[in-house]
Design goal:
FAD-binding oxidoreductase, FAD, alpha+beta, Uridine Diphospho-n-acetylenolpyruvylglucosamine Reductase, domain 2, 7-stranded antiparallel sheet, Alpha-Beta Plaits, 15 helices, single chain, flavoprotein, 4 domains, Uridine Diphospho-n-acetylenolpyruvylglucosamine Reductase, domain 3
C-alpha cells in the first residue's frame, strides 16, 4: 500500500479491511454494464456504521471520491469506479438487526442480499414482497438506491413502498436517521424518500427498516402464446378484469430462444412470436375464471396456446422462461434500455417503439421483455460478432436518443428501475425538466458539499 492517502486511512481506521490487488480492483470497480474499465484507488469493506462515517470524513480531507457498492448487479453504470475513486463495499454489513412483530418491520444492514431478506422475513411468517431474478446477489441497499421494481410491482409496488425508515451517511459524514418506521409523519420533508433512488449521490445507505406483509395466497402460473404484438394489451385487460394478478410479464420469441439455449425447458411444440407469463391467486373459483379468460382470448384470436401450472415445480419451470432471460444474455454483454410509460400510454408507445426499433436495428438481434402490468419495457440489443464494440455502442446511442424523444412524447421515463448512472445520464432531460434537474443538483450540494459521493452518476455537478 504505497499511496499516502490510503496509509492515512489505515492509520485512522486500523481495523478497516482494504483491498488493493488488481483482481479486487477489477471485481469491485464495475457493475454488469462492462462498458467502462474499472480503475478504483482501493476497495474499503467497513463492518460498522461508524467506520463508514470515518471513511467519508477521511475522503473529504483527502479529496477522494467515493463509489458506494452493493451487489453491483446494476445495468446503468451506477456502481462503476473508473477514475481513482474509493469503492465502499457494504458486503460485510449483511445482517438482520431486529424484527418488530407489532409494526411488522425488519431492520437490516444495507449489504444484506435480497434473498436473505426474504428468508429472514419468512422466519417470522411474513414476506418482503419485492422480488426479481438477481435476488441472490443484489443487496437491499442497492435496491433502495435505485428504487428497484421487479416482477410483482403490479401487486406490491416498488421498493419505495416498503421502506419504513433508513439510515444514510451523507457526504459530510453525518448519520441521518430518516423515516423511523412511522406510518404517519407530517413533520416536514420526507428525507427517506429523497434517499430512495438517489443512486449513492447523496450518501451511503447503511441500514434499512423494511415493512413486511402477509404471505400471498396460493397462486397459479399461466403461460400464454400470443398471435401478434397487438394482442398483448388486450390479453392484459382481460386477465386483469377477471383475475387477481400478482404478475404479468411478456417476452418475445428471441428471448425464449436464448433462454432455451441456456437450458430451460421448451413450453410448446410450436414456436410463437410473443409470450406472456402471469401469476394469479389460485382457488377453485380462480381456476374457473382463468380458464374462462383463456378461452375468451383464444376465441378472439389473441392467444394461440397456453398452459396453467399444476405444481410448484411446473410453476418454477414457467417462471424460468422469463426470469432466465437476463442471465442467458449476459455473455453477449447487451446494450440495454429500461424504460417506462403510464399503462394507459403503453399501447401507443409500444406501437411506436416497435416501428422505431424495427427500422433502426434491422441487423441486430433485439430481445424484448417487460413488466407490462406496470408499464416497464426492457430492450436488449446484442452485438454482432463482426462488429467493433465502439461502433456497436455508438449505433445504440444514436437509437437511444430517438427512443428518449419517443418517451418524452409519451411522458415516460428513460429509467424505470435500473437508475440513471453513467449509461442514461445523457438522456435525463427527456424525463426531467431543467428546473427539476437544477433542484436535484441543489439538494445534492447540501448533502454532499464536496461532490464526492458517486460523482458523475445521475448528472454532472
Amino acid at each position: 500500500m504505497t499511496d499516502p492517502r490510503l496509509a492515512a486511512l489505515s492509520q485512522t481506521l486500523p481495523e478497516l479491511r482494504l483491498l488493493t490487488d488488481a483482481a479486487d480492483l477489477e471485481h469491485y470497480g464495475r457493475d454488469w454494464t462492462r462498458r467502462w474499465t474499472p480503475a478504483p484507488l482501493a476497495i474499503a469493506l467497513p463492518a460498522t456504521v461508524e467506520q463508514v462515517q470515518a471513511i467519508v470524513r477521511w475522503a473529504r480531507e483527502a479529496g477522494v471520491a467515493i463509489v458506494p457498492s452493493g451487489g453491483r448487479t446494476g445495468l446503468s453504470g451506477g456502481a462503476v469506479a473508473a477514475n481513482g475513486e474509493l469503492v465502499v463495499s457494504l458486503e460485510r454489513m449483511n445482517k438482520a438487526i431486529g424484527f418488530d412483530p407489532v409494526d411488522r418491520t425488519l431492520t437490516v444492514q444495507a449489504g444484506m442480499a435480497l434473498e436473505a431478506v426474504h428468508n429472514a422475513a419468512k422466519e417470522h411468517g411474513l414476506v418482503y414482497p419485492v422480488d426479481f431474478a438477481a435476488r441472490g446477489s443484489c443487496s437491499i441497499g442497492g435496491n433502495i438506491a435505485t428504487n428497484a421494481g421487479g416482477i410483482r410491482v403490479i401487486r406490491y409496488g416498488n421498493t419505495r413502498e416498503w421502506v419504513a425508515g433508513l439510515k444514510l451517511v451523507d457526504g459530510r459524514g453525518e448519520l441521518l436517521d430518516v423515516g423511523r418506521g412511522l406510518v404517519k409523519n407530517s413533520s416536514g420533508y420526507d428525507l427517506r424518500h429523497l434517499a430512495v433512488a438517489s443512486e449513492g449521490t447523496l450518501g451511503i445507505i447503511v441500514e434499512a427498516t423494511l415493512r413486511l406483509t402477509d404471505p400471498p395466497p396460493p397462486t397459479s402460473v399461466m403461460l400464454l402464446a400470443l398471435a401478434d404484438f397487438d394482442a398483448l394489451m388486450r390479453v392484459f385487460a382481460e386477465l386483469r378484469a377477471k383475475l387477481r394478478l400478482e404478475a404479468f410479464e411478456f417476452f418475445t420469441d428471441r428471448a425464449l430462444y436464448h433462454v432455451l439455449a441456456h437450458g430451460a425447458q421448451k413450453p410448446f411444440d410450436e414456436a410463437h412470436p410473443y409470450y406472456v407469463v402471469t401469476e394469479f391467486a389460485a382457488g377453485e373459483a380462480e381456476e374457473g375464471a382463468a380458464l374462462a379468460a383463456f378461452e375468451h382470448c383464444v376465441g378472439e384470436g389473441w392467444v394461440l396456446d397456453g398452459v396453467i401450472s399444476q405444481s410448484e415445480a411446473q410453476a418454477a419451470q414457467l417462471w424460468r422462461l422469463r426470469e432466465g432471460i437476463t442471465e442467458s444474455l449476459a455473455k453477449y454483454v447487451p446494450y440495454k434500455n429500461d424504460v417506462s410509460v403510464r399503462i394507459s400510454a403503453m399501447p401507443a408507445f409500444l406501437a411506436e417503439t416497435r416501428a422505431l426499433l424495427g427500422q433502426e436495428y434491422p441487423q441486430f438481434d433485439v430481445v424484448w421483455f417487460g413488466h407490462i402490468g406496470d408499464g416497464n419495457l426492457h430492450i436488449n440489443v446484442l452485438k454482432p460478432d463482426d462488429m467493433a464494440q465502439v461502433d456497436f455502442v455508438n449505433d445504440c446511442e444514436r437509437v437511444t436518443k430517438l427512443l428518449a424523444q419517443a418517451l418524452q412524447r409519451h411522458d415516460g421515463s428513460i429509467s424505470a428501475e435500473h437508475g440513471i448512472g453513467l449509461v442514461k445520464k445523457p438522456y435525463l432531460s427527456s424525463t426531467r425538466s431543467e428546473a427539476e434537474i437544477a433542484l436535484m443538483r441543489g439538494i445534492r450540494r447540501v448533502l454532499d458539499p464536496d461532490g464526492l459521493m458517486n460523482p458523475g452518476k445521475l448528472f454532472d455537478a
